[in-house]
Specification:
Layout lengths: L1 H12 L5 H13 L4 H20 L5 H8 L17 H8 L7 H16 L3 H5 L6 E4 L2 E8 L5 E5 L2 H14 L8 E3 L5 E5 L2 H14 L7 H14 L4 H8 L4 H8 L11 H9 L4
Antiparallel strand pairs: 1-2, 2-3, 4-5
Length: 276
């Protein structure tokens, strides 16, 4: 999808892919109001495309190097990111049509991101064999995440049901868990790439009226809803694979409580309520 948008932009300005045209494209994305993280994800994919084009002698080394050297958009301030409420999460999971094979796959994809807090790269490389039973429940065992940290991720019952519906319908018994589905509705053998994971999330989020929403926002949603449900901070750290509780605290951020406001108590007791 990101490459399609880039192609349309290059056609519009009638220029080939180069450093100057990529800088112009980046400026256009900023003007559209996209978040820095969304823009930087697109830039990362384009850099990979340029590097691959150089390896296949489609781009010369100098042009490819100048493209890969285009910097990311700087993030201003501390971004808390986007996340869904519990009702929005339910609405998102209702988007895929589970009467179709691709709908079963997309539901499993969303359920894993929402229910297990996986990074999209972790999800893209997930194998059928990675889901095992430990202490009487399904888990993703020995998941290697960011910084080569290894963790075990528990799989909630509803998420496991969604996975089972997809794997049974696609007859997957080993290899990549999430795979492409052809237009005729047949599963492929190749793993679904992390860009495809991002595309599924973005498309489904748009269906419920939430633009510019990515896979990492579902990871954040998982963490936020775990915390709102009374989840222990240290256990959320283990779930996400963070290096420290401080990282998890920064990740969750602070949130203003409107229903039970911090100023209600002292104003009522000290200013308006009569002493007992």
């Amino acid at each position: 999808m990101a490459f399609d948008e880039l192609g349309k932009f290059l056609d519009l300005i009638e220029e080939p892919l180069s450093r100057s045209s990529l800088v112009a494209y980046r400026a256009q994305l900023v003007e559209r109001g996209l978040s820095a993280s969304t823009i930087n994800v697109q830039l990362s994919g384009i850099r990979q495309l340029a590097a691959e084009a150089r390896r296949n002698a489609i781009l010369d080394s100098e042009t490819a190097a100048s493209i890969t050297d285009v910097p990311n958009v700087r993030q201003q301030g501390t971004r808390t990111g986007n996340w869904l409420s519990r009702d929005q999460a339910k609405e998102l999971l209702a988007v895929p049509d589970q009467e179709k094979l691709i709908g079963k796959r997309d539901h499993a994809l969303l359920a894993l991101l929402l229910g297990c807090g996986l990074r999209r790269q972790e999800l893209a490389v997930l194998q059928f064999e990675n889901i095992v039973e430990r202490e009487g429940r399904a888990v993703i065992g020995d998941l290697v995440g960011k910084g080569r940290r290894v963790r075990t991720v528990t799989v909630p019952f509803g998420v496991k049901q969604s996975i089972d519906r997809w794997t049974a319908a696609a007859d997957i018994q080993d290899g990549p868990l999430l795979r492409s589905v052809s237009k005729s509705g047949k599963p492929g053998k190749v793993a679904l790439g992390d860009w495809s994971v991002w595309s599924v999330v973005e498309r489904c989020a748009k269906e419920i009226g939430i633009p510019n929403f990515g896979a990492h926002d579902l990871r954040r949603t998982c963490a936020k809803l775990c915390r709102k449900s009374g989840g222990d901070l240290e256990q959320i750290k283990f779930l996400l694979g963070h290096s420290s509780i401080q990282t998890t605290e920064r990740y969750l951020g602070s949130e203003q409580k409107i229903a039970v406001a911090v100023n209600d108590t002292w104003v009522c007791r000290k200013l308006y309520c009569k002493p007992q």
